[in-house]
Amino acid sequence: MSATFVGMPPFPEAAHAALADTQLRTNLRHATHTIRDKRARVVEEVEDWEALRVKGARIKDDMLARLDTHLVTLEESLTARGATVHWARDAAEACAIVAEIVKAHHVDEVVKVKSMATQEIELNEALAAHGIAAWETDLAELIVQLGDDLPSHILVPAIHRNRAEIREIFRTRMAAAGRPAPDDLTDDPAALAGAARLHLREKFLRARVAISGANFAIAETGTLVVVESEGNGRMCLTLPEVLISVVGIEKVLPRFADLDTFLQLLPRSSTGERMNPYTSMWSGVTPGDGPQEVHVVLLDNGRTTVLADEVGRQALRCIRCSACLNVCPVYERTGGHAYGSVYPGPIGAILNPLMRGVGHDKQIDSLPYASSLCGRCLEVCPVMIDIPEILVHLRAKVVDAHRDGAPGAQDLAMRATSFLFSDPSRMSLAVKAAGVANRVMTPFGKRTLPGGRRALGRLPGPGAGWSDARDLPMPPRTSFRAWWKATDGGRNEPPVVGPRHTGGAG
Amino acid sequence: MSARDEILARVRSALGPPATRAGHAEPAPADPAPVPPPTGEALVELFVERVADYRAEVVRCAPDRVADAVRDGLGASASVLVPEGFPASMLGMPEGCLSVSDEALSASDLDRIDAVVTTASVGIATTGTIVLDHGAGQGRRALSLVPDRHVCVVRTDQVVAGVTAAVALLGVADPTRPLTWISGPSATSDIELDRVEGVHGPRTLVVVVVG
Question: CA triplet A99, A103, A106: central angle to 5 degrees?
Fold first, then answer.
């Protein structure tokens, strides 16, 4: 896969392009609405859902407060069960560790279970540089990989593709990667899944090394857990001789008993099912069953930076369910690519700036603003991450990070506003000036807003960035206070018959 | 400094000294259970209904009819994998079907076998899940994965109400065994969120509920 998120434009720019793609918006609307309705139905079934959420958040918070202890315990348990534990400070170190292990086995291909951590560190690209082909085996990941495309959703990465597009990708690209698609392939989802089954089966049967992530890592038992649907996970975790799992350090859970809470929260929040079809648990090496060489790479890559941020820390509770994506009005319209990262949507808008820091990259700095702060993401989050709170916190950090440079348009506007709002006579003058502006500018109004007021199109100069995504209404002709005085609170106002505002349509 | 020491140092510096850290000393309280979970016949009925909801085939039978139910569940399979420890009394074989035992079969060998029969460790009613711990009668993990048809025998006394009870049981038994939780046949919703049964795992799952 040569596609990469590196060099993506800031969110508003990327969103602008995405919004113009009507096919994308149709696909996204259908998919996000389907899945959010399914989630709502199965969540309703659980009597004590709120208590479960509280418990999930609490287990994660307690775990994070003792993360150092739990990581050491996890390492001991894994080692005692025959696994080899590696630690990686960043993406480059993690990729180097994995590449080294794969090369030691003299193979030129590996099979992969869908894993956000390995996408985050761009492992496939790193392995390709060593001449190792990493085959994605999740259906949606396969669609993305064959299409030389980028994932746009955490759970269903090909959510932006419809069945006709998928058929075309399989028909034209499968042959180059292995077993070709059948000649008579239709766009029926069952037929497409059948083609993927045949294409991947030969890879599962011959693979000697597999790479996975983990949804949970149990410290006391050294148990890793992978939650999936298709069985590609079971294939990768069971058939090859060598298994390498890349696990973010925040995935640790202290006790096996903690799975109780998360195996209820995750499937219902994620795919909207009571339980996902397959969950695999393994603890190091089991003689005679599954891979006999097991490696676990514990990955930091910015997670300790998140941990150090007392407001942002709660983002490490995230179990990658993607419920926040499916309810987000911004995600539903722009899709995942606009966020410029493997973590899109509301969780991506906080995770990327938290993990990578703000103030050095325009793209990252734009993400905390990719939200209307409506709060739906918090409502559905199974571990109660207060995403709106963190977005506001990050906006402040972005502003702080740019304080030393020349003031931007926003700073100047805020300073002017502060000057006006701090003195009633200045405010009153400004309101009168706005009335004059209405008369002067109305002929230039490009659009009519609901209610009849005219709106300006694109503003010139520094205001352009603001007006690119919004309509700027004309200032009203008179202020409310002036109107109240002149009409005695509306009692002397003549009934409205014609256009009420200059240039308005009534 | 090694990566391990550096990451642990970063964690410690982010959190501060243990005594000053937030968090709760005690584990979180147990879930309130506003509605008592179903028991007895209602529990088994819920299990059967929820397994069937995933479009798995569910058959209930009396203990002396298990072999018949297994035979029916195997359908027209030409070969069936029988793991070590699978009770002979439960094994009903369709006419002409070859019984294969696991003698270090390779993945490709397994791919040429039509079906597998196993027992289970736990059944979960609310989620319609069966859990294999790959002990006697269940075989190593690959056996119940590669063949395209899985016939699984669950006793009614193995069925518990919810995930909580299942995790508690498995935790007491031996949580370090490999565990496979199965809820219906292999499925995907990756294409327009349409659920399609049957991708890589067994495309047909038959659950025989005994008792």
Answer: 155
Distance CA B178, CA B201 (A): 17
Name the B residues in 21-80 with CB < 8 Å from any A CB: 21-24, 27-29, 31-35, 50, 54
For residue B79 the two structure tokens come to 């070969």
**Rounded Cα gap, residues A34 and A36, in angstroms:** 6
Domain of B176 in residue numbering reads as: 38-185+199-210
- Answer positive or negative: Cα dihedral of A209, A213, A215, A221: positive
Residue A121 corresponds to which tokens in the numbers above? 């560190």
A280–B180 C-beta distance less than 8 A: yes
Check CB contact of A202 with chain B, cutoff 8 Å: no
Residues in chain A with CB shorter than 8 Å from the CB of B160 are: none
Q: Can you identify the CATH homologous superfamily of domain A11-303? A: NagB/RpiA/CoA transferase-like (3.40.50.10420)
Q: Does B24 reside within a domain?
A: no
CATH code for position B174 = 3.40.50.10420
Please list every residue in chain B whose beta carbon sits closer than 8 Å to the beta carbon of residue A301.
Answer: none
Residue A25 CA to chain centroid, in angstroms? 17
User: Is the reported ipTM for this assembly greater than 0.85?
Assistant: yes
The reply to whether residue B11 touches residue A304, judged by beta carbons under 8 angstroms, is: yes
What is the rounded distance in angstroms from the CA atom of residue A107 to the CA atom of residue A244?
14
Q: If DSSP codes are grouped into helix, strand and coil, which group holds residue B33? A: coil
Measured between alpha carbons, how far apart are the two ends of chain B, in Å? Answer: 61
Q: pLDDT by residue for chain B (211 residues), tens digit each?
A: 999 999 999 999 999 998 888 766 555 556 555 567 788 999 999 999 999 999 999 999 999 999 999 999 999 999 999 999 999 999 999 999 999 999 989 999 999 999 999 999 999 999 999 999 999 999 999 999 999 999 999 999 999 999 999 999 999 999 999 999 999 999 988 888 788 888 898 999 999 999 9
A355 touches chain B (CB under 8 A): no
3-state DSSP assignment of residue B173: helix
Q: Quick check: A210 and A242 in contact, CB under 8 A?
A: yes
> Cα(A198)–Cα(A178) distance, rounded to whole angstroms?
10
> Domain for residue B61, yes or no?
yes
In a domain, B14, yes or no: no
Q: By C-alpha distance, which of B40, B32, B90, B83 is closest to B65?
A: B90
Residue in chain A nearest B55 by alpha carbon = A277
Any domain includes B165? yes
Residue A275, CB-side half-sphere exposure with 13 Å CA sphere: 31
Helical (H) or strand (E) element with A367? none
Strand segments (E) across A404-448 = 447-448
Q: Encoding tokens for residue A119?
A: 């996408």
CA dist A469 to A13, A438, A464, A465, Å? Answer: 10, 22, 9, 8
Task: Give how many domains chain B has, as a whole number.
Answer: 1
- Domain map (residue ranges) of chain A: 11-303, 423-487
